[in-house]
Amino acid sequence: KAVGRTAEIQQINTLLEAIKVSIHKIYHEQQRRDGNVTAEKIKNEFLGVAETRHNLLELFQRHNEDVKKLIGIDKSKATYQKYEVTRTRLTDFIKEKYNLSDIALKEINHLFLTDFEVYLRTICGCNSNTTAKF
C-alpha cells in the first residue's frame, strides 16, 4: 500500500485493492474447480496466460475411443474392455483419494502410482499379477 494523500497515491491504492480482490477471486475459483492452487497458476490466470491442461481421465477416455475404433482391425474387444475397467478403477480411485473428477497429468507422480497400486490391492482385491497388468 502506498502512503500519502495525493490523488495519485489514492489511485495507486485503489488499483492495488482491485488487484488483491481479483487474485482472491482467482484463488477461490481454482480451489473450487480442482482443489490444487499454486502461486504460478494464480499468476498465469491473472496475467491471462492460458494454461494447457491435460487431464489423465480425459486422455484415457480418448485413448479408449481410439482402441474401440480398432476392434477387429488390430485390437480385440477384450483389450478394449480391459482398458475400460482400468479407466473405471482410476476414476473411482481419483474420486475416493482426491475427491476430484479428474487429475492433471502434471500432478501424476510416484506417490500417485503407489497409492493407486495400494488401492487396487486393498479396495479392489487385485493380486500382484493383476495389479501389474493395470
Automatic annotation (TrEMBL):
Residues 55-133 form the Phage integrase SAM-like domain. Keywords: DNA-binding. Gene3D superfamilies: 1.10.150.130. InterPro entries: Integrase_recombinase_N, SAM-like_dom. It holds the Pfam family Phage_int_SAM_5. One of its GO terms (molecular function) is DNA binding. This is Tyrosine recombinase XerD. It comes from termite gut metagenome.
